[in-house]
Design a protein that fits this description.
- By secondary structure, the protein is α+β, with helices and mostly antiparallel strands.
- Helix 2 crosses helix 3.
- The longest helix has 19 residues.
């Protein structure tokens, strides 16, 4: 007999609470926001430094994180973050991918443009694969960066090639120059 599928709103709530719990274990005073807080699922303040961050979570039980066009907006403030939470089952700790919002915006922008080139239409919804963002896995220390703009791009080769070829939107901080790139062996 197949297990009943968890409703999407419960999956999303689980990701928010897992993120708040993980932040709390790392010295952040974290709280899940009410559901109509725009673009903020978790609000946190670092207990030692007082640094405030706004975190948007995206949670998946499968291989893709679903996002909307609104998620393509570059950050307005340096304290805006995404945490992607991949649930791996009841008895396993989730995987977390910690990304500055402007990194997510860049990946979504080139992914949408590349899709539009291939299919001659806009995608109804966009998705990010954990494989594209593997080097953002468990990068909790990024949250303490004095300047999130200095965080290197950690995505995979396919998204980097698209960034080099297609660029980013004119309102994106990387419009004039792409950031340093984290290269892993």
């Amino acid at each position: 007999m197949r297990a009943a599928r968890t409703p999407t709103n419960l999956t999303g709530a689980a990701g928010e609470y897992f993120t708040a719990a993980e932040l709390s274990t790392r010295g952040w005073l974290a709280t899940v926001t009410i559901k109509n807080a725009p673009e903020t699922d978790v609000l946190a303040q670092h207990a030692a430094t007082g640094r405030l961050i706004s975190v948007q979570t995206k949670t998946a039980t499968g291989q893709w994180f679903r996002l909307g066009v609104k998620d393509e907006r570059p950050s307005r403030e340096p304290n805006e973050w995404f945490v992607f939470v991949r649930l791996l089952g009841r008895d396993r700790r989730p995987e977390f991918f910690v990304m500055p919002q402007h990194h997510v915006a860049a990946v979504l922008y080139v992914t949408r443009r590349e899709f539009s080139e291939r299919h001659e239409r806009e995608p109804a919804q966009m998705s990010i694969s954990p494989a594209w963002i593997a080097d953002y896995r468990e990068q909790w220390d990024f949250l303490e960066a004095a300047d999130p703009m200095a965080i290197p791009y950690c995505g995979d080769d396919s998204r980097w090639e698209l960034l080099e070829r297609l660029g980013v939107s004119t309102d994106h901080p990387w419009h004039r120059r792409l950031p340093k790139r984290l290269v892993t062996a």
